[in-house]
From TrEMBL:
Domain of life: Bacteria
The protein, known as: Acyl-peptide hydrolase
PANTHER family assigned to the protein according to its UniProt record, in alphabetical order: DIPEPTIDYL-PEPTIDASE 5, SERINE PEPTIDASE S9 FAMILY MEMBER
Family: Belongs to the peptidase S9C family.
UniProt xrefs under InterPro entries: 6-blade_b-propeller_TolB-like (IPR011042), AB_hydrolase_fold (IPR029058), Pept_S9_AS (IPR002471), Peptidase_S9_cat (IPR001375), WD40 (IPR011659)
């Protein structure tokens, strides 16, 4: 494989990169963020195309916090680098499956190892390996001690025995997995026979003198009893002194059910006890306070047939396990909490009115306050001296980039930092629209208008329905990018119908267990509202969506013929068969009920029951490695459409999962969608994408 390209391409020669799918695929994509302990260095992960343009490679870049120099690339290898963490000595730890230059012959199936890039630059060196690969690194903020996650074979006491077991299975040609608990798959991976364990690494050895042997790093299994299906793969946090670790543990909950609890573990002995174990809730996203005496976490109440989940933050005393609600009465769903530098406040993120905003709440109780006005934030980092916050910020009209925020101020517009992913411009404008549902409820929407849309040249309209369904259109998306459509002259409507996040619990309740009702009528109300605009051509419209959005695209196809085309990606068609085969049936079954004993919701809301009503041409898209919405949904939908003679096409990806994640396939995805829209919305001849 060749080296990845250095300078990312930000514009195509012919104009907007959104008008040219190859240029669009070449735009740099900024991901994770890591701040050093002294608050002086910031690393980001940036994905760019490799030389062959067949893969996106992730590399680590450093951002100048003074904003004087452009971001600087730190790492460079074909397999790429991810999960950056700064060690207290200023070195940068990361995981990578790059070859070890000192290890002789390259491994046949290289696994990610832990690497360290010295503080003063120079060559990165491998620090530790495991036969199952290193998937995650956690660092104690004060002591600098390290814990890693790696998948271990059942019964293998050490790395040597683990490697031996893997070798024997390989030599015998055995790939079979025996399961004794639900589930058996997650996302696009088979669970087992290896399962994630946590290993204590402790202090990392200092860089050896030139020519000296590297001292071996011993791994101590902190979770020897971790069992499939989840093992010790949940989120975790280390106390600043490295003495304690709190991890999310997935435990059985009724037949074929799971729930998450918090477990406290002494790192010196491996002794563990439940810290928060609530039979009526999932606990997640734990983070230690700066003095290690408390943990903040998210509590998600178990949904029921009648009631959706609700989220709140808990402040947990580590010594006693006493938990106190931090956001009672806050009618939004808090996520990703973190203590302020002095421990007196907690920052968190929440969907709010078409934004994903940053909030702050006093740690000893009080009202949460929203700190940011616009945009969607992620990867929040708190400078340990309390001087600043850093995060990635995006919006529907801006891809993610690093920013600095004031730790106290409200109503903030953060300072942008040098961003290798800055765009030169967009092929249109973004507007905020409020439609009104039949019951008077406001429905928030974003509307993308192409540059040329006007009363004289009204634009065709594409309704794009988000997934989840408990989500919100509020951040940039490379997978669902409306600007690619805008560059071809389409207006794109992005509504947040009932069930969406950021409008309060009652807004979720409106659609709970009744997906074909308020969520559908809210979408139609939004389309009705924008079709009134002179710059929209109401006679040329289409609807599309992925995942839950694909469910809704299918539902729309069965309920109305007002659209000229439907595009349905990774969609739910027969909800009973979906729930029985997805990787997390327990997530859905509470809302929908047992299909044999409580069939009503399935009868009323499963699109496949109304297949005879479909009149609109449908483009079906699905990946075979999709274990979230398994391929059986698309196979049955395709059969049902073909049997009924509905004009339809099926774009099938044998190697993609729920999302289309490789550059070639992603371009073909957009190309096929655009061809299908051109055929049915504009009445043009079908243009089969060249590579299909
Ligand atoms: C809160 S969003 C994810 C909800 C849901 N989770 C589980 C465990 O099933 C989920 O994955 N829903 C999919 C059907 C879906 O609509 N996914 C969307 C949103 O993530 C997608 O774009 O993939």
């Amino acid at each position: 494989m060749s080296e990845p390209s250095d300078a990312p391409t930000t514009a195509s020669p012919s104009g907007s990169p959104f008008a040219d799918l190859a240029a669009f695929a070449a735009l740099p994509r900024v991901g994770g963020l890591a701040l050093s302990a002294d608050g002086r260095r910031l690393a980001i992960a940036v994905q760019t195309l490799d030389h062959e343009k067949t893969a996106w490679q992730s590399a680590l870049w450093e951002v100048d916090l003074e904003g004087r120099r452009p971001a600087r690339r730190l790492t460079r290898s074909a397999p790429g680098e991810s999960s950056p963490v700064w060690a207290p000595d200023g070195s940068l730890l990361f995981t990578s499956a790059r070859p070890d230059p000192g290890a002789g012959e390259a491994a046949e199936d290289p696994k990610p190892a832990l690497w360290s890039l010295p503080a003063d630059g120079g060559e990165a060196r491998p620090v530790l390996t495991h036969p199952g690969g290193i998937s995650r690194v956690a660092l104690a903020a004060d002591s600098g001690e390290v814990v890693v996650t790696a998948s271990a074979m059942p019964g293998a006491g050490d790395a040597e025995a683990d490697a031996e077991r893997r070798k024997r299975r390989k030599e015998a040609g055995v790939t079979a997995i025996l399961h004794e608990a639900y589930p058996v798959r997650y996302w696009d991976s088979d669970l087992g026979p290896a399962t994630p364990h946590l290993f204590w690494v402790g202090e990392l050895p200092a860089e050896p003198d030139a020519g000296a042997e590297r001292p071996p790093v011993e791994l101590r299994d902190l979770t020897p009893d971790a069992v499939p299906p989840s093992g010790a793969g949940g989120d975790l946090t280390l106390s600043p002194d490295g003495r304690l670790l709190v991890r999310v543990e997935s435990v059985p909950d009724g037949p074929a059910g799971r729930r998450d609890r918090l477990v406290l573990l002494e790192t010196a002995t491996g002794e563990a006890r439940a810290l928060v174990d609530d039979p009526l809730a999932d606990l997640g996203a734990p983070r230690f306070s700066p003095d290690g005496s408390a943990v903040v976490c998210v509590r998600e109440s178990m949904s029921t047939h009648d009631e959706p989940p609700d989220y709140t933050l808990l402040h947990v005393d580590v010594a006693t396990g006493a938990a106190r609600e931090l956001t009672p009465g806050f009618d939004r769903w808090p996520s990703a909490p973190q203590f302020s530098a002095d421990g007196t406040a907690v920052y968190f993120l929440a969907d709010d009115d078409g934004r994903h905003a940053l909030f702050r709440v006093p740690a000893d109780g009080g009202e949460p306050v929203r700190m940011t006005t616009d945009g969607a934030y992620s990867d929040l980092q708190v400078a340990r001296d309390g001087s600043a916050l850093y995060a990635l910020r995006s919006a529907y009209d801006e891809p993610p980039g690093p920013v600095r925020l004031d730790p106290e101020a409200t109503g903030q517009h953060p300072d942008p930092l040098p961003n290798p992913g800055t765009l030169a411009g967009l092929p249109g404008t973004l507007q905020e629209v409020e439609a009104t549902a039949a019951d008077g409820t406001p429905v928030h929407c974003w509307l993308v208008l192409p540059e040329e849309a006007s009363a004289e040249r009204p634009a065709p309209l594409v309704l794009w329905v988000h997934g989840g369904p408990l989500m919100s259109w509020n951040s940039w998306s490379w997978r669902w990018c409306p600007w690619v459509l805008a560059a071809r002259g389409y207006a794109v409507l992005l509504p947040d119908p009932a069930l969406s996040q950021g409008y309060g619990q009652d807004f979720v309740r409106r659609g709970w267990g009744a997906w074909g009702e308020a969520p559908y009528t809210d979408l139609m109300a939004a389309v009705d509202a924008v079709e009134q605009r002179p710059e929209i051509d109401e006679s040329r419209t289409a609807a599309m969506g992925g995942s839950f959005g694909g469910y809704m695209a299918n539902w729309i196809a069965t309920q109305t013929d007002r659209f000229r085309a439907i595009v349905t990606h990774a969609s739910l068609w027969d909800v009973d068969s979906f729930i029985g085969t997805t990787d997390a049936a327990y997530y859905w079954e509470k809302e929908w009920g047992d299909p044999l004993r409580q069939p009503k919701r399935y009868e009323q809301n499963s699109p496949h029951r109304y297949a005879d009503a479909i009149r609109t041409p449908v483009l079906v898209i699905h990946g075979d490695r999709d274990y979230r919405v398994p391929i059986g949904e698309a196979l049955r939908l395709w059969y049902d459409l073909q049997k009924r003679g509905v004009p339809s096409r099926f774009l099938y990806f044998p190697n993609e999962n729920h999302w289309v994640l490789t550059p070639g396939n992603a371009q073909v995805w957009y190309e096929t969608v655009l061809s299908f829209l051109a055929e049915h919305v504009h009445g043009q001849d079908w243009q089969r994408p060249e590579l299909l």
